[in-house]
Amino acid sequence: MLPAAAALLGAPDAVDALELTEQVGDVQRVAVVLVDGMGWHLLPELAADAPLLASVLAGEVGRLAELACTFPSTTPTSLVSLGTGTPPGEHGILGFTVKLPDSHRVLNHIFWRDDPAPGAWQPVPTWFERLNRAGIRARAVLPAHFIGSGLTEAAYRGAQFHATNPRDDYAAHLAEEVATAPGLVYGYTAELDTAAHVFGIGSGEWHTAAANVDALLTRLVEALPSDAALLVTADHGGLNVPPTSRVDLDADPRLAAGVHTVAGDPRVRYLHTADGATPDVVAAWSELLAGRAEVYSRDDAVAAGLFGPVRPEHLPRIGDVVVTCTGDTAVLATGYEPPEVARLVGMHGAATAAELAIPLIAFRG
């Protein structure tokens, strides 16, 4: 996505693999807005409360294409894949949570600040940095509490940050930045994903969030200068997980046997095992979750290309065993995670089409 946006702006070495130039023509300004949780398969249901998205689906405005996010289909991984234009095995943000090498401590990338140091933990240059080196302005309009976090540095390093507060008019801030100067402007909204997690996809709260997102995008489209493009995408899709589809590894000693640290998220689990226990853990989980999950050793998961090519220094961040759920199964880890994780209704992270497929919507001013 960002290499294609950079190519629109004339950045050297930027490849427009999405053929955006043919869609939007010659532009001097590009706004990229990521709507957290706006999966491709959710668009028809979203359109019921979203006139702009309904018009896009009807082919009346904008250009719509289907893309895929990287695996795991979780926000930290996807944001850094977006920012760097590389797969997770290259940039190293390999899950919602990962175990720190040589430690039993688990890093939650959402609450990460400066330990480990972002530049060392995620070493790949971002497209914000690359645009700056090319003399093209790159800005990010983000909630104030995002700025200075490890994840923000990993994904958007090099951007000129513009902080907003909850009471601010976010659409006006984005539109003003686009109008102020040529270059790239990035924006992000989490309202839809939060409603999906807390209340469920299809809930009244989720539909209200859909209407709010649509109103934001409508204002941006209406404010686009004639030499600007707006690109709207997502970081993942999602699905609701019913109570009957939840498995708690801490409630079943057969699943807990041989496991000393658990990371990942309920749809993709990284299991770090005691010495020599990996084959037995793979066998036990394969038997007990047959038809509900794919179970890999680390070597097999890497060989299958789940993460793209993996740098050797990033390998320990992946569990000795990787469990990726199929259908609507989720693996809880109540002994390792805060209780609110088990209360989530909507989830994502695995490799199903419902979680990986995301839209790209292109508008021209």
From TrEMBL:
<dbReference type="InterPro" id="IPR002591">
    <property type="entry name" value="Phosphodiest/P_Trfase"/>
</dbReference>
<protein>
    <submittedName>
        <fullName>Alkaline phosphatase family protein</fullName>
    </submittedName>
</protein>
<dbReference type="Pfam" id="PF01663">
    <property type="entry name" value="Phosphodiest"/>
</dbReference>
<dbReference type="InterPro" id="IPR017850">
    <property type="entry name" value="Alkaline_phosphatase_core_sf"/>
</dbReference>
